[in-house]
């Protein structure tokens, strides 16, 4: 986290002080590397630190920070764009130093997770840490799980080669498909389309501000809904409800645009139609913000056994960035060819991924992270991949899944 923060800080500095395009590009590359570090380490850190009962809520705190950051950044950008002398962009870019400094300072106060202390061979220290973060001396059962997980992990020398073994097939598949699915919901296309819609709604010059503020607030509030629900009602219910809500919204948006603009894109929307489409967009952003948005980071960080946890998360981050890039590159071309059909295209994917979740993603709420294999073992499809000796603890399984 420290290195991520430092790289990010240098990137922010280069961007803010940029004298030429090369500096901008280099700065942006460093910011990207910084984000990569953060997205690799933060979700795993939070999932390992959190007591199982509130792991979802704590992990989604990361997404919460990001959504608040996006809202703040949009407001700042709007403000700096009004600066007549034209140096506003420097302020915007240099302000990336604020989260960077927070991360750097924070990383000095953050203790290591018991897992990583144990991995480095200090069982006594690891136990102390566990007692400290649980606020009780009674951590025997959990510590035993950690120690067992550590023993299993030690047998594995090459996490990257290992993750390809059949015994990790469920985790590998999920760590590839979840980030792919998260991006193919079309969220970034909706984010792009929202300001256009706001223009037709008559917000005029302030359209992009209004759009950013409204979708930004929906995003923050609905991420809070996810924090509240993930450990109470479970990940699956959020995925399934969110998926269905997104499908409905996308189909209706496609229908409304199709009726009003046809395939040649000429036409207009009456006020009430535009209001309705605006409502649909907000309902769609809401659904994403309490399902695929945060859970796309939570689930991959909690399903992998210790020995492949970093490798799994690295795959998750890379696949996510890769498809963010692809969709960013191609969606305009697709929009030109598919017109309103683009929304149906994404809706089709959301149908597939919702069905996938229904059949292939077991519920992980409240399951201690080191006992996760009990859940895979009990799964109708994945169970056959999990060898008996990979299952740790599990005496609580009945209680947990009851
Ligand atoms: C990093 O993780 C956050 C938090 O969940 C997410 O909102 C963001 O899109 C991720 N960024 C990248 C580049 O993957």
From TrEMBL:
Any one GO MF annotation of this record: monosaccharide transmembrane transporter activity
Regions that span the bilayer: 58-76, 88-110, 172-194, 209-230, 237-261, 276-299, 311-332, 338-361
Keywords from the UniProt entry: Membrane, Sugar transport, Symport, Transmembrane, Transmembrane helix, Transport
Cross-referenced Pfam families: Sugar_tr
Cellular compartments per GO CC: membrane
All copies of domain Major facilitator superfamily (MFS) profile, residue ranges: 1-365
Membrane topology: Multi-pass membrane protein
CDD domains: MFS_STP
Compartments where found: Membrane
NCBIfam families, A to Z: SP
UniProt-listed PANTHER family: SOLUTE CARRIER FAMILY 2, FACILITATED GLUCOSE TRANSPORTER (PTHR23500), SUGAR TRANSPORT PROTEIN 11 (PTHR23500:SF460)
Stated family: Belongs to the major facilitator superfamily. Sugar transporter (TC 2.A.1.1) family.
Name of the protein in its database record: Major facilitator superfamily (MFS) profile domain-containing protein
Annotated organism of origin: Populus trichocarpa (Western balsam poplar)
